[in-house]
Amino acid sequence: MKQMDHNILKHVIADQHRIIRESEIIPREYTFDPQANYVLVGLRRAGKSTLLYKIAQDLIKQGKSWSQIIYVNFEDERLNGFKLEDFDDILSVASELTDQEPYIFLDEVQNIDGWEKFARRLADSKYRTYITGSNAKMLSWKVVERLGARYFIKTIYPYNFKEFLNAKKIEYNEMSFFDTAADGRLRAESFDFLTHGGLPETLIYSDRRDYLESIYQKILFGDLIARNNIRNPEAFRLLINKIAETIMHDISYRTLSNAIGSVTNSKISTDTVISYIEYAKDAFLLFDVKNYVSKFVERNSTPKYYFADNGILKLFLLNKDAILLENLVAIALYQKFGDQVYYLKSNKTKIDIDFFLPEQSTAIQVTYDLNENDYTREIDNLIKLKKSNEEIQNLIVVTSEQERTINTDEGYTIKVVPLYKFLLNEDFQH
């Protein structure tokens, strides 16, 4: 078996040390047990690597030496052709660099088939190990079974609004809502966040759209089309476009299949649409919200789809702030509650609720502007839901800017909340 050139690995590790040393780390709302091993997954450029940089920097502050930080980025072109059998060389290089305990960082390891076998051996050998990847397929049941209970798995999302403000060095407290200037600034920043999303590096570039376009192209062609050997890339691209247009609405696989077929003048099966959507979800580009009241099969066939980042979604939309608003509310809820977020739509009761959180006894409607045309739909649906289930405690309407409390004739209280307060209020569900 041919041994990998150890000097190449040493160059990769040394160059990574320099990058980590020079990185200014924005604190985020993630914590890590120092005695645990981790696998971090999430959307490309959501900040997984930066979290590893923070862990490495903290180890140095604790008195560890740089020679103990064995950080290998598998997107480094010098590692092209790296295979499963080459992993042993990482341990060999570690032993050459230090006689102390090494800390192993494997960044974007998903492209190396069988990586989980090495990861398990590292954990069994008591190496402290941190791993990142940009595809949920790397956590298939077979992979998780091989890892056993040896790793904690965390999904890393783009910035939430609090992290976004922190990254921009904008301070706020409870009194900020009563300070005209501070309150205005928070409102303005919420619209910036609505439009450009939370990918950390969007704050670096002056032309954020170009940056987001480049990231989307990498996700589309690298993480999706190439990795999954998609034979009809045009159909796949059209599918993502169509989903962007249908946010706010439940949509079936068959409807998507027909819509794409009508544009391409070629048939695309519902099975293919299902596969394509799963690829997009695996790459953390999309997530779905299922109907709470539907039968099981319908929950899986007529979900609502949302984009994991508003900045990427905005690439497909022109003057569609209402769609961006609902998508951002979906992101905020999904980041906090995951698969416990539903929508609720019943043909029997005619109740239609944008977001339903049964465990938080909360129902949420989203409308850009609660005007006379939308008032009946938004408020009446909440009232009907409350009448059918008195256990629901929180009735909320999220708007772009409006704020008020509605006391209904039935004795119910409905809170109308502007976007920025919704995003900043952690305890909205109580």
Structural summary, described in words:
The protein has 430 residues and is of the alpha/beta class. The chain folds into three domains: 6-156, Rossmann fold (3-Layer(aba) Sandwich), CATH 3.40.50.300; 195-329, Orthogonal Bundle (Arc Repressor Mutant, subunit A); 343-424, no CATH class. Helix content is 44%, strand content 16%. It is built from 16 helices and 13 strands. It has helices at 6-22, 48-61, 87-97, 115-124, 141-147, 161-167, 180-196, 208-226, 233-245, 253-264, 270-282, 296-301, 310-314, 321-337, 372-388, 419-424, and strands at residues 38-42, 69-73, 103-107, 128-133, 152-156, 286-291, 304-307, 342-345, 352-357, 362-366, 394-399, 404-407, 413-418. The strands form two sheets. The protein has an eight-stranded mixed beta sheet, with helices on both faces. A five-stranded parallel beta sheet has the order 2-3-4-1-5, with helices on both faces. Helix 15 (372-388) links the parallel strand 10 (362-366) and strand 11 (394-399). The longest helix has 19 residues, at 208-226. The protein is globular, with a radius of gyration of 24 Å. The N and C termini lie far apart (61 Å).
- CATH homologous superfamily placement of the largest domain: P-loop containing nucleotide triphosphate hydrolases
Strand order of the largest sheet: 7-6-8-9-10-11-13-12
CATH topology of the largest domain, by name, is: Rossmann fold
Number of helices: 16
Indicate the radius of gyration in whole angstroms.
24 Å
Unreliably modeled segments = none
Overall shape: it is globular
Terminal Cα separation, in Å?
61 Å
Give the biggest sheet. Answer: 8 strands, mixed
CATH architecture of the largest domain: 3-Layer(aba) Sandwich
Order of helices and strands: HEHEHEHEHEHHHHHHEHEHHEEEHEEEH
Percentage of residues in strands: 15-25%
